[in-house]
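Final report, closing paragraph on structural work. Over the funding period we assembled a curated collection of sequence-structure pairs, and we close with a single example.
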Amino acid sequence: MNGLAALVVAGSGQSNSAPADMFEARTRATVRYADPAAWITATAVARALSDFEDRLTASQHDVGVVVVSDQGPNAAMSEVQGAASTGFSSPLRYAASNPGSLVAVACIAFGFRGPTLNLTMRPEDGVPVALQICASWLTRRSARWMVLATFRAESAGTGFSRAILLAQADQLRKPSNSSIQSAAEWLTQSDETRRIHEDSYTEAH
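Its predicted structure, as stored:
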């Protein structure tokens, strides 16, 4: 985990569902064919950002997103495949069936325009790589904040996502008691009852 010493976990969230009232109707209409996996991931991201949402809204170009999952939008992919087998598949559904939609829906929902990446890897294998990428982008000031999320699914239309908000320690007033190592372990585990240890943070001015 070299290169991660300067990072802190500013927030975390998880979800196994996508409440209808979590996002504006306009947002849902914009991505109306989005897979449940994308909405579940976006919900976990929303919960991770809850303490900093106002600040992040004011600096959308400085927020990057990385998602790690080898079980992407299964329902949307199945729908496209099924439609294609009958002779016609609507291009409107192609974007929703792309694994990158797990990143895209969160970015659309929150207006984030920082660097993004979707790693089609098992969380156990991909999270260490993703953390190094987040650390690099934050160190180079390509982003001021990074969201890192994982998604798992046992079947199409279901799933479980976890997300953390990362920042460099020098932009938060209170140092973290939650290590990056513990955050990495939390992101890769499927036990929905386990909570990440975190403090409340405030942005340094």
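The first strand starts at residue 7 and ends at 15. Residues 197-205 have pLDDT under 50 and may be disordered. We thank the funder for supporting this effort.
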